[in-house]
Amino acid sequence: MINARNITKSVTTAEGSLTILDGINLSVGNGESLAIVGASGSGKSTLLGILAGLDVPTSGYMALAGKELTEMDEEGRAAVRAASVGFVFQSFQLLPGLNALENVMLPLELHGIANAEQKANEYLERVGLSHRLQHYPKQLSGGEQQRVAVARAFASEPDVLFADEPTGNLDSTTGAHIIELIFDLNSAQGTTLVLVTHEARLAQRCARQITLEAGKQIENVDLGSQTVESDTSNASSTNNTKAEA
C-alpha cells in the first residue's frame, strides 16, 4: 500500500540548506497500522505529508496504492488522494458554514456517491452523533468535532487513513474515546492506518512504530513481536539544525 525508499526532504533558508528528512525507508502493507513518533521538530508531519501525497520529497521513491507519486504532478497526486486516502487532522478541519451532516456529506458528493446523505447519517451514528446532525462546528465540543472528522474520513471508505496528532487538541478522556473510534472503524473496514502522535498509548495500539530524530529514522519496532531495528549511525549523527514537523 505504501512504499517509501530513501526519502529526503530539504529546503533552502537564509542560513543555507536545511535537511528535514534524511534517508527514510519504510513500507506499510494493506490493513497494517503504523505509528510515526518523535520529538517536535523531528520531521513527523513532513513525512506524513509525503507519504500521503500532500508534499513531494527532494529525492527518493514514493508509491501509494500502487502509484508512484514521485513521477506525478499535483493533479495526479490529488487524483490518487481522492481515490484512496482519508485524513484526520489535529485541528479537525471542518467547514464552519456546514453542519455535521453536511461536513460528512460533502466529500461523498464530490466523489459522486449517490447515497451520500444516507452514508453520512450512518457514519455519524457510528461515532455517536446521530443527535447532533444539524449542529454547526461552533456548536460542538472539541471531541464532537473530532468525531465528525473521523466519520468524514471513514465514510469515503479509503484504502489508507492518515491521522496527524488526532488527539492533540483533546483532553485525555475524550482523546481515549477518539482512539477507540479510530481503531474500531479501522478494524471493521480493514483500512491501512498511518498516524503521527506524541502519545505512547496511541502509538502502542499500532502494529508497528518508527521513531524519527532530527529527520533520521532511528528505530523501527514491530509491536506485535517487539522486534526492534535500530539505525545506530543515524541515532549518533544528529543534525544541529532541526525543522518543526
Walkthrough of the structure:
This protein has 245 residues and is α/β, with parallel strands linked by helices. It has a single domain (2-236), classed as Rossmann fold (3-Layer(aba) Sandwich). The protein contains 8 helices and 11 strands. The chain has helices at residues 44-51, 74-84, 100-110, 116-126, 142-155, 172-189, 200-203, 232-236; strands at 2-13, 16-28, 33-37, 59-64, 67-68, 85-89, 160-164, 192-196, 208-213, 216-222, 227-230. The strands form 2 sheets. Strands 6-7-8-3-9-10-11 form a 7-stranded mixed β-sheet. It has a 4-stranded antiparallel β-sheet with strand order 2-1-4-5, covered by helices on one side. A hairpin with a 4-residue loop joins β10 and β11. α3 packs across α4 and α5 (142-155) runs parallel beside α6 (172-189). It is globular and about 50 Å long. It starts with a strand and ends in a 9-residue tail after the last helix. Residues 232-245 have low confidence and may be disordered.
TL;DR of this structure?
This protein is of the alpha/beta class and 245 residues long.
Describe the secondary structure blueprint for this structure.
Blueprint: E1 2-13, E2 16-28, E3 33-37, H1 44-51, E4 59-64, E5 67-68, H2 74-84, E6 85-89, H3 100-110, H4 116-126, H5 142-155, E7 160-164, H6 172-189, E8 192-196, H7 200-203, E9 208-213, E10 216-222, E11 227-230, H8 232-236
Parallel strand pairs: 3-8, 3-9, 6-7, 7-8
Antiparallel strand pairs: 1-2, 1-4, 4-5, 9-10, 10-11
Helix pairs in contact: 3-4, 3-5, 4-5, 5-6
